Amino acid sequence: MHLRVVALLISVAIATPSVAVAEYPEKPITLLTGYGPGSVGDQIARGLAEAAKKHLRQPIVVVNRPGASGTLAIAEALRATADGYTLGLGTIGNLTVQPSRMDLPYGGPDTYVPVAKLVTYPNVLMVRTGAPWTTMQELLDHMRAHPGEVSIGVPGIATVAHLNLEELKLLAKVQFKVVYFEGPQHVPAALLGQVDAAVAGPGPIIPHVNAGKAVALGVFDARRLPLARDVPTFKELGFDVTLRSIQAIIAPRGTPGPVVKALDEAFRKAVTEPSFVSLAEKTQGTIDYKGPEAFADELRGSFENNRNLIRTLGLSKK
């Protein structure tokens, strides 16, 4: 009898993880995004929530928490109970740059659980239609002739867009004013002439280009955008500035492995859904899925590289 009881207990212990996976999720999952409605982060979060409906037993509820270059949402997500019911939508900026330049309740990728990398995006520099410059070379020449005169908007300090510009300053040996905005408001500001130019992902910019309201002058990537093949990359122009942003999912440290696995399996399928593939194309992103281990490895390398970059630029913690 004793041996039977022991065998029963062992079988229950072995079966428990699979039961936990089968039952998760038992209630809606909250996904916090650090950017406002209509932003690429907001679109990707909501697109993922829609695409994941077929692959999770409960819905994903997207909550916008804009502020502090996206770190407010990440910090809130990582303060939550580590049970898989609160997740954060992270970017290269708020995951691998901001922790090195401000005091945050999180640091590198070992302070949280990387769940899934979804999409990558290069940034684009644009001006409004009717601006004095129609090519990037014209703008660079103007900057050299009039140092500090041109103003360029970015969505916050030490965001990927800001780092792109600071690298361009160093390599092109030009001076201009960087103007910080909250979320995607710098693109409308450029269209209205409140700043001379703006740097953002393709999603907020290319529709204005197609509508004839804006002109894309350059892409911060090693390859041209598929839907804007006439726009040169900065690498083609002689400046190797190719840091791109991502949209990815993270969870609080201590989130159970079976839960992370269940999320990975669901999201891996969700990004292949036609609705999500269409969204990635619409926002000019590239689906670049990586699961927990591969994503964690990539984040560690990116965290170290970007920490060194912001030190070089003088943007690190004082």
Compact description:
With 318 residues, this protein is of the alpha/beta class. The chain contains eleven helices and eleven strands. 47% of the residues are buried.
Describe this structure in words.
41% of the residues lie in helices and 20% in strands. By secondary structure, the protein is α/β, with parallel strands linked by helices. Helix 6 (160-172) links the parallel strand 6 (151-154) and strand 7 (177-180).
Which stretches are low in confidence, meaning pLDDT under 50 for 5 or more residues running? 5-20
Straight-line N-to-C gap: 67 Å
Looking across the biggest beta sheet, what order are the strands in?
Answer: 2-1-3-10-4-11
Strand segment count: 11
Radius of gyration from the alpha-carbon trace, in angstroms: 22 Å
Gross geometry: globular
**H and E string:** HEHEHEHEEHEHEHEHEEHHEH
Integer average pLDDT: 91
The chain-level structural class is alpha/beta
**Largest sheet geometry:** 6 strands, mixed
Q: Strand share of the residues?
A: 15-25%
- Count the DSSP helices: 11
- Estimate the helix proportion, in percent: 40-55%
